[in-house]
Structures are given as C-alpha cells and as structure tokens.
Amino acid sequence: MENDEGRRLNIVSYPYKCISGTGRGIDEYCRFIIDRMDEEAKYNLSLLPYTKKNLGFLNLISSEFGLFFKMARTKSGVFHCLSPVGAKTAAILKKRPLVVTVHDVIPFHIKRFHLIRYFFLRKFIGYSVKKADKVIVPFEFTKSFLLEKYKIDSSKIVVVNYWVENKNGTEPFERTVNKESKSPYVIFFGSHNPIIRGADIALKAFYRISKGNSDLTLKIVVRSDSPDVGELKAMINEMRLEHRVQLLNLLEEDEMDRSIGSALAVIYPARIGYSYLFTKTLQLNAPVIGTASLDMMDFEDRYEGLCGQDDPDCLAVKIRKLINDEKFRLVLLEQGKKILEDFSPEDAIEKILSIYDEFIK
Could you tell me the pTM of the whole model? Predict the structure, then answer.
C-alpha cells in the first residue's frame, strides 16, 4: 500500500472537465494525459476535475470549496495541475511535489477583454509558478516570458510541445484541398470570443480582397450565444458583406474537419497566440493565414503564412497570393509538415513521464 500511495499521480484538471468534445483545448490535453497514463499503468491515478455543468460564478465559488477539501484529503503523490487556477489551491495547501502546466500568458498581454478574470489569472499564474517544483509550458516564448517575469531558475521550466494526434489512422498531408469548388471560401473559427481571436481583422482583410474575387466567401464559425455576435453583424453590414459572409454555429468535429479540408485557407489573425486550430489545420492539409502574436512568434521564421498583429493589409496580400499562386500554397503545406514534426505525441508523453519520474520513485 505504501508503494501504491508513493506512486500516486493526482491530475487536477479543475476548472476543466477532462472530457473530449467540449471544444476546450485543456480538456483534450487532460484526456490525452489520462489515457496515456492508463496505458502506462505505472501510477495510482487520481483525477480532480470540474464537475459542474457550466462555469457560472456561483458554480465556481462552490467548486473552489469542493476542490479545497478534496485536495486536503489527498495526502500523497505528485500533483499535476493542468491550469494555474487549480495549482493555486494545491500551492495554498502546500501539496508537494507540485507540477503545473501554464498553457499561455494571454492575461499579461490582452488588456481590452476579461479585465477581472485576467487580473485573477495573472495572480494565479505568478503564485503557482513560484511555488511549483516543475512548470510545463508548450513554447519557448512562454518559458522566456515566465523566466523574465518571475526570475526563477530556468531548470524549473520544461518545454513540452503540444501534440497532434492522428485519430483517423491516415498519414497527414495525404488529403487534398478542394480548390475547384464552385463556392470557394476561407474560414475563420471564433468560438465564444471571436473579436479577441481577430474576427474584426479577418473581416477587414476579406473586405480588401472581396471585390477582386467575386465568388469567394468568408465563413465565420461562432457560438450563437457569443457576446460579440452583435458587433460582428454590425461590421458585416457596414462593409456591405451580408451576401459574402456566413455566420455559422459551432461545428461537430467531423464537420469541422471537412470544412477545414475543403477551404482555401483558415484565417487565424488571433491576438491570443497559438491555438490547436493552427496545427489541426496543417494536419488536415490546409494552409493557415494568420498572425505571429505571442507564442505564435515561435513559428514566425518557419511559416510564411504569418503576418504581424492587427495587420489586415498583410493578411489580404497573403490570401490573394494563396488564391493566385499554387507554388505559395505548396510552400505553406511543406512548411506546415515540418512544423508538425515537433508535435509528436510520443515525444510529449516521454517528457511528461520523465518529469513524473523525478518525483515518483
């Protein structure tokens, strides 16, 4: 029993559910780790997820208390918190060894949106990074930022790239883009907050190329309950693009894959840096025209489809080039293929296991 308890691994996904299909990257991240740890069968595995139906304020408050007491009763093992929100509770309770994943540093760079939420996230990130025994980050950009911000030992932070799983069993880049479609389109995925993801920049870029490409349409995928829908519709009307822009509700995964695979390009001018959408699109053999903001700057010298932040003119130029220059499209696909080599599930899990094994003997 002592050996079992000594090999206890507590995965804290709070405030996420660790369920596939939610559209949240951290849920997929958690599900991948849990599934792989089950396969490894090396640890006595425990999961502390978020259990409420939604992330409402009252639900979060009650869940905070629930997480605190659950964590307090857990006496041993490594705690791997997949968000600084859960990590701050582990740190308050002095749970050790403590591993925390910091997925991004968006709250330090975005000032226009989510003022209260990002204020607390900045505090949670700082507190958990200082208290953790190891910090996992997905990009060198994130590591450099945290080292400079908090002046901690560089050996404390480990870069573990995200991964791209090949779920359908076929090799990436065997698929072909439907370039001969009678209704060619570019597509933008905005989720719940399309403006912070650059929907306004995508619209401005599309407006610049729309007159010279009368058949081209822009599809914007956005949640119907998004607070940005009204602003988007007003921008579309102001630009007189009502018949050229389609607002679509969130797509199921298979439908999303088909939409990406048939698009001329995915437009991703996000102000928030990397999204799994970037690598997912590359895997589906479609090019991305996007923005090298925050951690996306890690790809700036490796992928020619990226522009500076808030630059619709550059985006328009690259989209137009993609339409008219087949060689450019092939260059982007080849560059994407090289980038995907860094997103190996096997490499990622090997690095994560090595971190656990430092503490679990």
Answer: 0.85
